[in-house]
Amino acid sequence: MILKIKYQELILRVLGLVMIVLICVLVNHLESKKPEIEIRKSITGINIYNGESKLVDLLQFNYKTSKHYILTGTLQSYGDQTSIIKYYQRHLDDIGWNFMGKSEYIDYSSNIKTGDSFVFAKENYELIVYFNFQDLCNNKKDDQKNLLKYSVSIYPKP
């Protein structure tokens, strides 16, 4: 009889611990979705340049910790860098993103330009549109008849 009561108490304690662990896992999962939902809402309604697809649908969310996450994707559009940036600048400005400027990426070991990035900011986030210099050169050679590859990344401001 005493053994049976101790066995029941042990089962109840184990079940209690399992429930606590499950609740913690569920809360952590729901918290990790919060930044993704917030970022996706901040770019709702923007299509990719010269395309029907929504930008928000093409970007993938990578979550590491509550402070280290990124929404990113590689896109392709017909057009040149200037047209693509003007398009995004106009549409991002309409929904509250501010253009912060352009940066050139340079490989200082060989003094070669590797790309251009265009930075936008909104509240706690930065959005970067990056063009690889090799892709830009190939696009100019073909008189912009091929798709121009570029990447879009959104992450929390440092």
What does it look like?
- This protein is an alpha+beta fold and 158 residues long.
- It is 43% helix and 32% strand.
- It is built from 4 helices and 6 strands; from the N terminus they run ααββαβββαβ.
- It has helices spanning 2-42, 55-58, 81-94, 133-141; strands at 60-63, 69-77, 98-107, 112-122, 125-132, 148-156.
- It has a 6-stranded antiparallel β-sheet with strand order 1-2-6-5-4-3.
- β4 (112-122) and β5 form a beta hairpin.
- It is elongated, with a radius of gyration of 24 Å.
- It starts with a helix and ends with a strand.
- The model has no long low-confidence stretch (mean pLDDT 81).
Write the layout of secondary structure elements.
Elements: H1 2-42, H2 55-58, E1 60-63, E2 69-77, H3 81-94, E3 98-107, E4 112-122, E5 125-132, H4 133-141, E6 148-156
Antiparallel strand pairs: 1-2, 2-6, 3-4, 4-5, 5-6
Q: What class would the helix/strand composition place it in?
A: alpha+beta
Catalogue the unreliable spans. Answer: none
N/C terminus separation: 62 Å
Average pLDDT taken over every residue: 81
Please give the share of residues in helix. 40-55%
Per DSSP E runs of 2 or more residues, the count of β-strands stands at 6
Biggest sheet strand order reads 1-2-6-5-4-3
Write a concise keyword list for the protein shown above.
alpha+beta; 158 residues; 6 strands; elongated; six-stranded antiparallel β-sheet; 43% helix
